């Protein structure tokens, strides 16, 4: 099976995903960053009554030059039945309903009051400082479109309509499977040779960021029967939409050259091929060349390598687009920052190379880009220190050596067009 390009792998994964059709009706206060399953229009104008936009005195604009008698006081939520007549004014607070007979409000700071008499010190025209009915929006105005994120501002708009619940698409359920005899749950005591299930934690966090609902599956040991039984159980389980695993993908061509799969340590691609359809195994990208894509139980299965940095990169570039499509979310992109390389980067023949990078101050306001190259073998493909230091990623296309001082784009801070911002 030939390795494919990043774009071909991504297209194949997207083609397997169907946006979820399930709808949930949830409390408005819980809906921020969720995706609307139907449009919502206003049923009330905002405001639905005339109200004062300031603290001051409600009056008839034609009487503003006269000394006025204050006959009542109106505050928000406490209207008055008193009708403002000639030579009269009503003390009023911001947001309070306008009394009948008044068509303007004079600012309290432009007024002088003595007892029950007030004098206005500025011209006041009809409609001054009055919010008319529907000033903000009228009946039938679109407040939330289908497939749009429920942002805090949307929440405010729907709350103005008294709406308690909102209909949103359910989150796609993403099953997370870690593989390896050495894995231990977080919080447990480690024995020699054991490590914590870092990838499971990474994937759970990234699934949530992508708009999915993580479904944790207990880790599975690197034994044929265990992997086969776990995948069979997952095929029979309807409670997930997308499966993502980490580890156990290293065996490549030998699986398809007549070797008995039971003799292999990296079992995921071979077992996936036995129980379903293996679509791709191997990608022309470093890190994480043995990433695989399969279909099991008529659902997509993304099998990622075991190194945490490879999991991070491959999830963002290959898995997240599929989850976001299933979640009715648009693609997410990183923010580009242009800088100059501080040291050369050799060509990677036939592979797209995704390199972590950090910034340092550079000349003329252009940042210097420090590539965080992987340690030489036999060390890990990336180390945690580099992951903590990195400001972004640098994507170097195949056969493209870059000299010191070359202008490059570092992709930083993933930008989410459906992430619940304003």
Written account of the structure:
This protein folds into 4 domains: 6-20 and 172-326, Molybdenum Cofactor Biosythetic Enzyme, Chain A (3-Layer(aba) Sandwich), CATH 3.40.980; 29-46 and 139-169, Molybdopterin biosynthesis moea protein, domain 2, CATH 3.90.105; 51-131, Molybdopterin biosynthesis moea protein, domain 3 (Molybdopterin biosynthesis moeA protein, domain 3), CATH 2.170.190; 333-415, Beta-clip (Beta Barrel), CATH 2.40.340. The chain has helices at 6-15, 152-159, 198-209, 224-236, 268-275, 308-326, 384-389; strands at 23-27, 40-41, 51-52, 56-59, 68-74, 88-92, 104-107, 111-114, 117-120, 130-131, 142-144, 165-169, 173-179, 183-184, 195-196, 213-220, 242-246, 277-281, 285-286, 292-296, 299-304, 333-341, 352-360, 368-372, 392-396, 407-415. The two termini are 46 Å apart. The strands form 7 sheets. It has a 6-stranded mixed β-sheet, with no helix packed on it. Strands 16-13-17-21-20-18 form a 6-stranded mixed β-sheet, with helices on both faces. Helix 1 packs across helix 6 (308-326) and helix 3 (198-209) runs parallel beside helix 6. The longest helix has 19 residues, at 308-326. Strand 20 and strand 21 (299-304) form a beta hairpin. It is an alpha/beta fold.
